[in-house]
Structures are given as C-alpha cells and as structure tokens.
Amino acid sequence: MTQARETVSFKPGEVILYPGVPGPRDRAFRVLEGLVRLEAVDEEGNALTLRLVRPGGYFGEEALFGHERGYFAEAVTGVLLEALPKEPTPEEVEALAQHLSQALSESYRRIERLATQRLKNRMAAALLELSETPLAKEEEGAIVLHATHDELAAAVGSVRETVTKVIGELSREGYIRSGYGKILLKDVRGLKELAQSRGDGR
Amino acid sequence: MTQARETVSFKPGEVILYPGVPGPRDRAFRVLEGLVRLEAVDEEGNALTLRLVRPGGYFGEEALFGHERGYFAEAVTGVLLEALPKEPTPEEVEALAQHLSQALSESYRRIERLATQRLKNRMAAALLELSETPLAKEEEGAIVLHATHDELAAAVGSVRETVTKVIGELSREGYIRSGYGKILLKDVRGLKELAQSRGDGR
What we know:
The structure is a homodimer of 202-residue chains. The first copy, chain A, has 202 residues and is an alpha+beta fold. Chain A contains six helices and twelve strands. Chain A has helices at residues 62-65, 90-116, 119-130, 149-156, 160-172, 188-196, and strands at 6-10, 15-17, 29-33, 36-41, 47-53, 58-59, 72-75, 79-83, 136-139, 142-146, 176-179, 182-185. Chain A has a four-stranded antiparallel β-sheet. In chain A, helix 3 (119-130) packs across helix 6. The first copy, chain A, is elongated, with a radius of gyration of 18 Å. The N and C termini of chain A lie far apart (55 Å). Chain A binds chain B through residues 38, 40, 42, 48, 50-51, 61-62, 64-65, 67-71, 90, 93-94, 96-98, 100-105, 107-112, 114-116, 157-159, 198, 202, and chain B through 38, 40, 42, 48, 50-51, 61-62, 64-65, 67-71, 90, 93-94, 96-98, 100-105, 107-112, 114-116, 157-159, 198, 202.
C-alpha cells in the first residue's frame, strides 16, 4: 500500500525547528532537497553548527521518541522536506537508525577534532565538509564555497574575528582564495592533509 | 516466539571492539550490566572518551549497517552484553533508533561544551556524568568516583598534567575532595552550576 507523503518547503534562513520538548504536532523530517543546519545558539547569538543534514538525511526524530530537542534546525539553502508519519514503517525506522548511526560517527569525529586539533586544521576539515554540500559550486574548474565568516565560525566552534585571521593565513599559504562571502578552494589535497593532522599539540 | 539471547561478558579494561570496517562475525551489543567506554586513541596513546554506554544502551551498531567503526569499545567495569542478532526485530531496531537519537543529543552537548566551555566547567560536567555510572559509589552519604586522572583527561578531552591542575583547583575551592584514584563530590549543587556556565569566554 502506497502512502501519500507530506512535503514542506522552507526558504534560506528560515527556522524549521526550535529547541524544546516536542509537542503533539511536531514531526521528524527527511531532507529531499537542499541543506539543513542543526545548531546551538548562545545568549550572545553566537551559533555553533552541530550537524549538517544533506538530502537523504533525517532530523527532528525526537518527535518520534519524545525526548527534548537541544538544537535549532535552520534552512541554509531553500529546502524541500518530507514529514515522516507519526508511526513510520519498520523500513523507515531502519533507514532512520542507519542515518543516526552515521551521524553519531560524524559527531565522534567532530568531538575528536575539537578536543585535539588546532583551529586551522579544523577549518580545513570544515571547508572540505562544506564543499560536499549545496553551498559549494564548481566555477571554472575549482570549488567555490558560498559562506560568510560567521557561518565558518559556527562550523568550527569559534568566533568571526578568529576565523578571519585563520582564513587570512590559509589564503597567504595558498590553500584558498577568499573573497566577499566566497571561498575558492585552490589546493584541495593540501587542505586534506591539513584536515588530517592535528597541528601543534593540544 | 521467544528467541534465546546470546550474552557475552568482559573484564575491566578489556577491549570489546576495535576501529575498522565491521567483518561478517561482528555484532552489535546491548549493555545488560556495567559500563562501556567508546574512545578514540591517538598515536601517543592519549585516549579521548567519545561516549559512555550504560545498561540499556547500545553500541557496535555499525555491524548492522556496514559502515566503518571509528572507535575502540572498552569495558570500564566488568560488563555483561547481549549480542544482537544479525537481523534484529522491528521492535529492537526501534529501540536502537531511540537510543541513537539520545546518544546524538548527548554528543551535541559534548560538542557545545568542547567549543564553548572552559576546562574547569567541562570537568564539572564530566564528574557529574560519571557520578551516574557504575564508577560512582555512595560512601558515608557522599558520591565517590573511582577514576584516575588519565580517565578524567579522556573524559574532558585533555591531558593528565592539565587535569591534575584543574582537579587541584576544584579541591581548593571546596567542590570536591581528591584522593588516590578517587574523587569525593562535596558540593554537587556547586558542580551543577559550574557545569552549566561557560567560564571565561571562548
């Protein structure tokens, strides 16, 4: 039996979910198109990216299980979402479990990077991660990221001023070329090496 | 139809799972008794705790989904585990999905703490987390943790020398009393306040 699926769309910058205990009308979502950012925001308005959800990925699954949500979900690009039914099929629950397992692995790597890597190396990792999202476009044979320094700060768990310094350093060293709201990845292999090393001690 | 369940036990310090691509004999586990630590270990042997799995929790679920495992799983105390069948029932998959969703929420908080909190505040959070595991005993009306400074360093993503300094500070300020391999939580409410605040900027 096929079920009609409920879809919903959001514009760039729109908040899809707020932190808190899920209410009876709250839903879990699967991303069909676009990019969703799960983030924490502190009292001063500094955002910290917790996870990026790409097409095929799920978020908001607290609504199925009834525990508290600790994040904002925001549309980074225009997004199209499928709202999961309140009682998903066993196949859907399995796909969800598989996605959560992957997301957990990614968050372990994130924890490792935060605990052991220098900001410059974490930034290289973040640029490479963003290069595999809809924020990246290929222009004249190179990858160009459309991201502000605020967005990069949220991605690495730092603040804009510090990020601006690190982006300047990566530019001078020839890894990237940085323009207004845009970053061109000049040396992807070099960035991969940086992303894999720790920098100077922890 | 009831299925006989396969259980397996490990002694404190034994490695249950190694990082890598799960093989055909690899299994996912549910903790029945004891405490399991998932950790990353760097080239110099420094451990970083990624997650603690308590009774009722699952780990090793990569074996069900076939993606690479990025952690060691180690028995912290003596543990008794249930090995999940290769094809778990829909109820088991749902319980697993629910656990993974909770674990992901916890790892978001971990990411937030690492990105924004000072070590002293993270240590307060780690001591409180450990106080809800089998490493904690009640002695003369107070909670006593059995943990070395190496274990505490792994819990907060730091190194022993730095942890020793922070533990000294928390002792002098009356939050804890520290002995050999033992920490008595003297001021749980004060530790909770510390765990909830950021410390001095990030």
